[in-house]
Every structure is written in C-alpha cells, then in structure tokens.
TrEMBL record, chain A:
Taxonomic superkingdom: Bacteria
GO cellular component labels: plasma membrane
Similarity comment: Belongs to the binding-protein-dependent transport system permease family. LivHM subfamily.
CDD domains: TM_PBP1_LivH_like
Ranges annotated as spanning the membrane: 6-30, 37-56, 68-90, 102-122, 142-164, 193-215, 227-254, 261-282
UniProt entry keywords in alphabetical sequence: Amino-acid transport, Cell membrane, Membrane, Transmembrane, Transmembrane helix, Transport
Membrane topology: Multi-pass membrane protein
Single biological process term from Gene Ontology: amino acid transport
InterPro entries, sorted: ABC_transp_permease, BCAA_transport_permease
GO MF annotation, one: transmembrane transporter activity
Protein name (record): Branched-chain amino acid ABC transporter permease
Subcellular location, record wording: Cell membrane
From TrEMBL, chain B:
Pfam families hit by this protein: ABC_tran (PF00005)
InterPro entries associated with the record: AAA+_ATPase, ABC_transporter-like_ATP-bd, ABC_transporter-like_CS, BCAA_Transport_ATP-bd_LivF, P-loop_NTPase
One example of a Gene Ontology biological process annotation: L-amino acid transport
Family as reported in the entry's similarity comment: Belongs to the ABC transporter superfamily.
Protein's name according to its UniProt entry: ABC transporter ATP-binding protein
Length: 292, 231
C-alpha cells in the first residue's frame, strides 16, 4: 500500500480508538470533576461492561443485532447500578475523602477482576458485531462496524454534553462540582448527585466497552489499558474539564492509531506516557484546564 | 420566628459554639458581632445543617431543623448568603439564579421580582458568575438566596470588601426585606452599619453568646463594641 492510503487507514483506526477512549475518559473526568474522586476502578467498570455485553448477547437469541442492542442498553445499566451500590456502600462511608477513596477504588478494582474471573472465566470471548458490512474504499476495504462505533460514540457524547449543559440534572451536577456545601444550602441532595455521577461515569466506560467488544473480545484483565489511557487523557485535558478531555482523547487516540500502524503499539503507549510526564512537569493544570 | 436554644456544636471533637441561645423575629434585623474566630460563621452553618449540633435545638415555626440533613434545611425557607459569597463561579448568573429558584420550586414571577431588585444582574445573565465584580458577586449571592422567598435570611459579612455605595445598596435591600416580614440574621463588623440596620445585636465571644441587647440601647460609644469586637 502507498503512504497516503496507509496513513488514512491509520487515522481511521485512530478515530475508533479515540471514540471509545473519549467515552471512557469523559466518564472518569466527570467523576473526578464533580466528586473529586480518583476512580482507580474505572478500567474495571469498562471490563464489566464488556463481560456483561457477552452475557447479554449469549442470552438473546436471533439476529446478532438484537443481542447487541440489548447489550448496549443493559450492560451500562448493570454497571451503573454496581457503581451506585459501590458509592453508597463504600465511598459515601469514607466521606469521599480523596486519599481514602483512591485506596478503596484500588480494592474495588481487584474485587471486580476476581468476580469476573470467577463468573466469566479466564478466556477471552468474542461478541458478534450487530452487522457485517465492509466498506470498499479504492485502496482497501474497511469495517463498516468500526465507522458505526465512531458515529455512535459521537452521538452519545453529544447527548452527554446536552445533558450537562441543558438539563436541570446537569445544572445540579455542575453546581455540586463548583461548591458542594453551598449546593446543599440550596436544597441539592449531594449524596444523590454523587451516586448518580458515579453511576453515569461507570456507565460511560461500559458503553465504550460494549462498542469495542465486537472488535476486541471480552477478557477479565482488559481494564488495564482503558484505565491507563483514560488517566493520560484526563491529565492532558485538564482534570475535570470535559472539553479538554475530548480534545485529548482525539489527540491520544489518533496518535496511538498512527504510531501503532507505522511502528508498534508499545511505542505508542511509551510516547503517550512520556507526553503525560511532560504535561505534568510543564503544565500541571493540563493543556486545557483553567487555573484552579 | 427562628429560635436557637442552647446550641452547641463544632468540627469533629472541637466545640466551637457553646450553649448559644438567640431568637430572630420576623420583620427584624438581628446583627451578630464578635471577633475573628468567635464562631459567627459556624453559627450560621449550624443553622444550615452544615455543622452538626451536638446539643440544643433550632426551631423554625415549630419545625426542629437541627436533625435534618443539610439539603432539607433551606426548603423550610432559609436563604443563606455565605461569607465570601460562595457563588457557583463556573455557572452563569442565570444558572445561579435558577439553582436558587429550584430550591423551593419558585418560577418566573419570583425570578422577575428578584431581578427587579438587582437590575445590574439582569444585564449580565449570561456572564459567568466568577467574572463578575466583587459588588456584583455579592448582589448575585443575595439574589440567589432571595429566590427562595425566604422567611429567614442569613447574611454573613455581606459588606466585606465593598465600597460605600455598594454597602448602601445592600443596606437598602436589607431594610426593604425587613418591611416584608423577613427575619434577618446579619453578621456584620462595622458599628455604623450595625446601628443603621439592627433591631437587636448579639455579641459572640469564643462561641458563647455573651450579650444580646436592643439596638436602640446602643450608641457608637457603647462599651460592648470595645469589649466584644475590639473597635
Ligand atoms: N472547617 C473547619 N474545621 C475546623 N475548625 C474550623 C472550621 N471552620 C472554622 N473552624 C474554627 O472554628 C472557629 C470559629 O470560626 P468561624 O469561622 O465561625 O469564626 P468567625 O466568627 O466567622 O470569624 P471571622 O470573623 O474571621 O469570619 C475558629 O477557631 C476556626 O478556626
Ligand atoms: Mg466568619
């Protein structure tokens, strides 16, 4: 293949990566922004989403699209419910203390991993794509499903953005993010906001996982990469800044795609980590974060 | 209207307030004075449920507030203007107002009434609250609290750092609310401002309510100011 088409292919792969990463990282960023909780279990919520998607598609007979649609709805709901439970049982009791919650979510991540190992097993298992369409470009064929992933992620992100900026629930979340004590003084039930935000953040990771699982397979250890990359993206974008998170997801996803295709996936991860180190040294508030 | 009796409370094991008893009546301004660290802010936060009462009661029209979760206190009609304003600074002026309105499900009528009091806010509805001038921020903090149509209004040093014309505007607002029957508790450090607004003055000293007297009985030369505030 010539360089031009090869680059195009790399960029398309990068877009798929960006799309799923954006969903996952926005969830992490939302949780950190509103709750000031660094959720180390975020990658495991991603993994649980993928595993739940496998169970749902197994249970739904008929055309793969049916099972997949059910998974896209049910897996995030299930993961969101697990997260809300974890919030009420653990984080709330720690008073959302920033350090204690880091330790607690590390513990949670092991619990989720071991639970998945027990109930799902050590194997990687595929989930069928909802449709099988190949787009024939002049230079190469490309999976129509991957393009659908990008579109779906973009639609979900637009939905989240509208929810945060236009809805009353979104306004309440942003007010809580700005000042939780004062939010209480205006009748906002901060505990309920936190449970909702934690569930929503986890559900976003699960949505990303459901979208990717027809490409990547579900495995009980699959949460590591999304966690690392989400942290990278959230730090580069500026902690708690949704716009920054989106831009950074695009940046990291595209460069990861290009570097993986032309060189190696390992080099891509090394460079991303190096980039984060540079950001932390020279611009700790992130490329797009305001002064806090 | 708001009756605080024998209230104690503080942060963790540290008791800041010790046996505070104070009644704020409707249509009256109760000023609270005391040195830095005397516990004035802590008292208002205790009323709002943000500081737990370890003993004593806070009653509003027969409802006991001290055992309610913090987010339910304002729904009984208590508007709070915290020290340092504490606006939702990333939100716009309009959104800050909306949060105030949502507290007790008030609508456009209340919003119009409040914005009529503060025309400068009406011109800046889409501006981020954090970018307002200090005086405008204080107006917004008061406007946000008035969106509850409160029966009790708590103001914590609203004139701090403001120029005289702005202080006069705040005094006018407080006096106007007084005529509508609101019970106001105002933490204020300036003697002249206190004497021009207060019906009753309470002096806090190390978390103890040392003395409460009618404002009419005080003059700028009264010894209480020297004793409890140090001016
Ligand atoms: N969050 C907190 N945790 C622990 N102690 C606190 C906290 N907030 C206030 N205090 C302590 O409680 C005491 C009373 O503080 P408070 O803010 O109520 O004083 P104040 O009368 O409002 O003072 P100022 O005039 O400076 O506003 C002080 O000794 C202060 O250090
Ligand atoms: Mg104070």
């Amino acid at each position: 293949m010539e360089f031009g088409p090869f680059l195009l292919l790399a960029l398309m792969e990068g877009m798929v990566m960006s799309a799923v990463l954006a969903l996952t990282a926005v969830g992490l960023s939302l949780v950190f922004g509103v709750m000031r909780v660094v959720n180390v279990a975020h990658g495991e919520f991603f993994m649980l989403g993928a595993v739940a998607a496998w169970f749902v598609t197994q249970a739904v007979p008929g055309h793969p699209a049916l099972g997949f649609a059910a998974a896209l709805l049910l897996a995030p709901l299930f993961v969101g419910a697990v997260a809300a439970l974890a919030d009420g049982l653990i984080l709330k009791r720690l008073n959302y203390d920033p350090e204690a919650t880091i330790v607690a979510t590390i513990g949670l991540s092991y619990i989720f991993q071991q639970a998945a190992l027990s109930f799902y097993g050590p194997d990687a298992r595929p989930v069928l794509a909802p449709f099988d369409l190949r787009l024939q470009l002049p230079w190469f064929g490309y999976s129509g499903y991957k393009i659908a992933v990008v579109i779906a992620a973009a639609l979900i992100l637009i939905g989240i953005w509208l929810f945060m900026t236009r809805s009353r629930a979104g306004l309440v979340m942003r007010a809580t993010q700005a000042d939780r004590d004062t939010a209480r003084a205006f009748g906002i039930n901060v505990d309920r906001v936190f449970a909702t935000v934690f569930a929503l953040g986890a559900a976003m990771a699960a949505m990303g996982a459901v979208l990717i699982v027809p490409i990547q397979q579900a495995h009980y250890l699959m949460g590591h990469d999304p966690l690392l990359l989400s942290f990278i993206v959230v730090i580069i974008g500026g902690l708690g800044s949704l716009r920054g998170t989106l831009v950074a997801a695009l940046l990291i996803g595209l460069s990861d795609g290009v570097i993986s295709v032309f060189f190696s996936p390992t080099l891509a991860k090394i460079l991303a980590t190096l980039f984060v180190a540079l950001v932390l040294v020279f611009r700790p508030q992130g490329l797009f974060g305001g002064q806090r | 209207m708001l009756e605080i009796s024998d209230l104690s409370g503080g942060y963790g094991a540290v008791e800041v307030l010790r046996g505070v008893t104070l009644t704020a009546r409707g249509g009256e301004v109760t000023c609270v004075m005391g040195r830095n660290g005397a516990g004035k802010t802590t008292m208002l936060r205790a009323i709002m449920g943000q500081v737990r009462a370890s003993a004593g009661t806070i009653r509003l029209k027969g409802t006991e507030l001290q055992s309610l979760p913090a987010h339910e206190v304002p729904r009984h009609g208590i508007g709070y203007v915290p020290q340092g304003r504490r606006l939702f600074s990333d939100l716009t002026v309009a959104e800050n107002i909306t949060i105030g309105l949502m507290t007790r499900n008030h609508g456009a009528a209340t919003r119009d009434k409040v914005l009529d009091l503060f025309p400068r806010l009406r011109e800046r509805l889409d501006q981020r609250a954090g970018t307002l001038s200090g005086g405008e921020q204080q107006m917004l903090a008061i406007a946000r609290a008035l969106c509850l149509e409160p029966a009790v209004l708590l103001l914590d040093e609203p004139t701090e750092g403001l120029q005289p014309s702005m202080i006069a505007a705040i005094r006018d607002t407080v006096m106007l609310l007084k005529t509508t029957g609101v019970a106001t508790i105002l933490v204020e450090q300036r003697v002249d401002a206190v004497l021009s607004m207060a019906d009753q003055v309470a002096f806090l000293q190390n978390g103890i309510l040392a003395e409460t007297c009618a404002a009419a009985a005080l003059t700028p030369a009264s010894p209480q100011f020297q004793t409890y505030v140090g001016v």
